[in-house]
Design goal:
Rossmann fold, 7 helices, 34% helix, 27% strand, globular, binds adenosine-5'-triphosphate, binds magnesium ion
Length: 229
């Protein structure tokens, strides 16, 4: 369970998040929507422990992220949670293959099974021919798919994705959403995804709508609670 309790964040005196509270259950698929500048990326980075709230708390399984040691934070980032930044954050000096395996290596989890899983994901998202390329030579959509695979590689129990299909054509968007849907249903992975697309948001159990740093409303996408599969 991931919980935000009345979190606030300001930049240069401007309040970007205003007392936001949100709970995400294990295995849930949540979409976050809202206009540009409403605070979605800030919220995700607070949930992922990449930013600290000015007030309020972010709890992972009841533990305040602010109290995490360096080691616990590292474990969160390399074992429990996969995170896809809006700007991808690929390591410029590493080729695609090394980018994909980096968190797994850092988390001490590089096994034949993981390599096979990454190869399978690369086939699925059509990244296999790009393994030796450096990030600067990739298109936006290719970089985005590499960032998604990197976040999924070590099979984290939670993935947090900031506009994961923003740079993709509709065929690739379909493939990414099928993949996210599958790991959510089959592996019970918790998925939290920001999107501007109603079509992408519709994959979620719940849509959280943000406006001007506040949660406007939450909608149960699958109203009868009967999640297929
Ligand atoms: N590091 C920063 N320094 C100063 N202001 C920031 C910083 N990061 C974000 N902001 C401001 O906070 C507000 C919310 O930004 P945020 O990136 O969370 O929006 P968003 O909802 O993700 O928008 P988009 O849909 O365009 O990605 C914006 O007004 C932005 O200018
Ligand atoms: Mg954003």
């Amino acid at each position: 369970m991931i919980k935000a309790e009345r979190i606030e964040k300001s930049y240069n005196g401007e309040r970007v998040l205003k007392s936001v509270s949100l709970s995400i259950r294990d295995g849930e698929f949540v979409s976050v929507m809202g206009e540009s500048g409403s605070g979605k990326s800030t919220l995700l980075q607070l949930l992922g422990g990449f930013l600290s709230p000015d007030a309020g708390r972010v709890l992972w399984d009841g533990q305040d992220v602010a109290s995490f040691s360096e080691r616990a934070l590292a474990a969160l980032r390399c074992e429990r949670m996969g995170f896809v930044f809006q700007s991808y954050q690929l390591i410029p000096t590493l080729n695609v293959k090394d980018n994909l395996l980096l968190p797994t290596v850092l988390g001490g989890r590089l096994s034949e099974e993981t390599k096979k899983y990454v190869e399978m994901l690369c086939e699925e998202l059509e990244i296999t021919p790009l393994m030796k390329k450096l990030p600067e030579t990739l298109s936006g959509g290719q970089s985005q798919r590499v960032a998604i695979i990197r976040a999924l590689a070590y099979r984290p129990s939670t993935v947090i994705l900031d506009e994961p299909t923003g740079a993709l054509d509709s065929r690739m968007e379909g493939k990414v959403m099928a993949l996210l849907s599958r790991i959510n249903k089959r592996d019970k992975t918790t998925v939290i995804a920001v999107t501007h697309s109603e079509r992408v948001a519709a994959f979620a159990d719940r849509i959280v709508r943000i406006s001007d740093g506040e949660i406007l409303r939450e909608e149960n996408e699958k109203a009868n609670g009967a999640k297929g599969g």
